[in-house]
Design goal:
Strand content: 25-35%
Order of helices and strands: EEHHEHEHEHEHHEEEEHEHEHHEE
Largest sheet: 10 strands, mixed
Shape: globular
CATH class of the largest domain: Alpha Beta
CATH architecture of the largest domain: 3-Layer(aba) Sandwich
CATH topology of the largest domain: Peroxisomal Thiolase, Chain A, domain 1
Structural class: alpha/beta
Number of helices: 11
CATH superfamily of the largest domain: Thiolase/Chalcone synthase
Length: about 300
């Protein structure tokens, strides 16, 4: 058994408006809003690293949970934008939390990394103890690679989110998850080592709008639940138009999908947990209510996860 105990997040201070980023790639603010639902995003300072962002989200999550770093059984960090090939940020985050022997795992997985991380943590926490899952991205470093591409540069922002998965108690019990991968589309969304991010936007949106609803519906059917029964959907914040398509496919109101993409843009593997942290700060999942997570990203990797409000 595994529970969601708390979320946390960190967003850099610098706000980058549509007007600012649009001026750099030759498009106006209204066009960006129409194609993405984004008004602004956050960019980290030049001297802020993925590790810095991840650490701040980790500290926020642990504080909300009332848990000491020394109580953690593992740290898992998902990021597709780390500054170096190895080591990844996980061990550095652990070190800066004062830990010197806690096992750490890096997942080089964009967008869907946090979802896969929570799923993995739910299976390992019974033997390891509480597991801190972090999604952290400095996408500004990527989108500013020349030549800047309009369809990419307007979408992304920086930030980090975190989730504490506990084997014994929390505000929601993890019921199940469904994870999927299909390497046939690996070339449609990829980040080479030194050149700009490459994205076939048409393929990404088409496949995501098909695969996310199917993953959610399959999981709900397995647990004899309806999409209408879900209290809130916490989805990777890729594009507001995609969120609307998924809601329509599931025949639920779009406002059941919590969205903060307008303020923060697409923060890749961090976005779902940033949204979860913001949602949980203002809302309470009641006992028996259903919470649904979903994500889709490069690979393609995608899936969904269900949790149910507990008495804790």
């Amino acid at each position: 058994m595994a529970f969601l105990k708390a979320f946390g997040s960190y967003l850099p201070e610098r706000v980058v408006s549509n007007a600012e980023i649009g001026a750099r790639v030759g498009c106006d603010a209204e066009w960006i809003r129409n194609v993405s639902g984004i008004d602004e995003r956050r960019f980290a300072r030049d001297d802020e690293t993925v590790t810095d962002l991840a650490l701040r989200a980790a500290q926020d999550c642990l504080e909300r949970a009332g848990v000491k770093a020394s109580e953690l059984g593992m740290i898992l960090v998902a990021s597709g934008s780390s500054e170096r090939q190895f080591p990844g940020p996980a061990a550095s985050v652990a070190n800066r939390l004062g830990l010197d022997s806690t096992p750490c795992l890096d997942m080089s997985m964009a967008s869907a990394g946090s979802l896969f991380g929570i799923s993995l943590a739910s299976r390992l926490c019974e033997s390891l103890g509480p597991i801190l899952v972090i999604g952290a991205e400095k996408m500004s470093r990527i989108v500013e690679r020349e030549p800047m591409e309009r369809g990419v540069a307007i979408l992304f922002g920086d930030g980090a989110g975190a989730c504490l998965v506990d084997p014994s108690n929390g505000f929601a019990r993890i019921l199940d998850c469904g994870l999927y991968s299909d390497g046939a589309y690996a070339e449609d969304l990829r980040l080479p080592f030194t050149t700009p991010l490459e994205m076939n936007g048409r393929s990404v949106i088409l496949q995501a709008s098909r695969k996310i609803p199917r993953a959610i519906a399959t999981l709900l059917d397995q647990h004899r639940k309806r999409a209408a029964d879900v209290a809130v959907f916490l989805m990777h914040q890729a594009n507001q138009n995609l969120i609307a398509r998924v809601a329509k496919a599931l025949e639920v109101a779009e406002d059941k999908f919590y969205s903060n993409i307008r303020k923060f843009g697409n923060t890749s593997s961090a976005s779902m947990l940033i949204a979860a942290a913001e949602w949980s700060s203002a809302n309470k999942l009641l006992p028996g209510e259903t919470l649904c997570f979903a994500a889709f990203g490069a690979g393609f990797h995608w899936g969904a996860l269900l949790a149910e409000g507990s008495e804790a």
